[in-house]
Task: inverse folding
């Protein structure tokens, strides 16, 4: 993990309120693992001391990028920054996803909205291709569909308003597919259900639903728990979630022990 002030290569609008920020960071880029994040200090912001966490989306040569949604003053200020301006980053942070092995479990990635950002590097570095289930409120929330297809992954889309893909929640589609595959023993002819593994990133409600589905179908799942963060490096305890221990549960930090946790470890009854 390094702290560096780095230059913006580009900061372009993707769809609607989503932007792609590319940063030149030759010392950080080679260290990045799928599912890790960068803690970004947006220098023009008045309360610039408070960093914002973003999943690392892509790595290319000496650059890495993030894919972010403008939701408040930090991301709004970030969206106004231009090439050659600078941000300060601490990266790469956190404990990421386990990259699937060739011939091992078939990965099913499940993402809601900007959750797709945490998935790209995993899909790119996984020698085992699988299926991406992506959901959003509407068409503009469905990100990177073509980029995942270009990596050789099958992409299934849902939107809540039905403007793209199937109408409904991404977890409903996942559940229906797993139910079907349990009945006829295959999921799109790729694999038997006992040979699947789920990886998910998105809103907490979606992750909780994925956790329940994993339990119901006895499929392992790794979830990226994006809790609100302050320090990002394990000191302030803002980001804790309840994690099962041998005889109960304890709080663990999503910024250091996570953000990726095995779903069977999470004590959902106690989550906020
Ligand atoms: C590990 C991790 C990875 C993340 N990856 C991405 C990513 O790849 N792309 C992306 O767009 N965002 C990502 N986020 C969320 C991102 O950090 C917040 O959207 C951002 O900090 C908001 O800053 P702001 O100043 O614009 O919003 P604020 O003005 O601080 O808040 C505006 C609104 O956003 C809500 N909000 C703030 N932080 C979060 C959060 N962590 N989760 C949900 N709601 C939040 C606030 O409650 C408020 O309603 C990630 C968060 C974590 C913890
Ligand atoms: S954000 Fe401070 S301990 Fe995790």
Result:
């Amino acid at each position: 993990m390094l702290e560096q002030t780095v230059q913006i290569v580009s900061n372009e609008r993707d769809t609607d309120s989503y932007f792609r920020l590319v940063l030149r960071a030759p010392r950080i880029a080679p260290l990045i693992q799928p599912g890790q994040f960068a803690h970004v200090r947006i220098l023009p912001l008045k309360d610039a001391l408070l960093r914002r966490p973003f999943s690392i989306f892509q790595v290319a040569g000496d650059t890495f990028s993030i894919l972010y949604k403008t939701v408040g003053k930090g991301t709004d200020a970030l969206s106004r920054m231009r090439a050659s301006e600078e941000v300060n980053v601490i990266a790469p942070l956190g404990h990421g996803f386990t990259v699937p092995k060739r011939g091992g479990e078939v990965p099913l990635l499940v993402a809601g909205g900007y959750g797709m950002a945490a998935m790209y590097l995993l899909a790119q570095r996984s020698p085992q291709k699988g299926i991406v289930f992506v959901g959003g409120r509407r068409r503009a929330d469905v990100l990177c569909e073509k980029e995942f297809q270009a990596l050789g992954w099958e992409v299934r889309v849902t939107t809540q308003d039905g403007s793209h893909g199937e109408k409904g929640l991404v977890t409903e589609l996942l559940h229906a597919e797993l139910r079907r595959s349990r009945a006829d023993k295959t999921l799109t002819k790729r694999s038997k259900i006992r040979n699947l593994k789920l990886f998910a990133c998105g809103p907490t409600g979606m992750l909780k639903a994925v956790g329940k589905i994993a339990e119901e179908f006895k499929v392992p799942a790794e979830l990226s728990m994006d809790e609100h963060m302050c320090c990002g490096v394990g000191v302030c305890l803002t980001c804790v979630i309840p994690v099962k221990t041998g005889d109960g549960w304890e709080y663990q930090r999503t910024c250091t022990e996570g953000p990726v946790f095995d779903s069977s470890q999470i004590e959902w009854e106690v989550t906020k």
User: Anything to note?
Assistant: The helical segments are 73-79, 120-125, 145-150, 170-184, 204-217. Residues 1 and 92 are 5 Å apart (CA to CA). The chain has a mean pLDDT of 93. The pocket of FE2/S2 (inorganic) cluster (ligand 2) is lined by residues 229-232, 234-239, 253, 255 (CB under 6 Å).
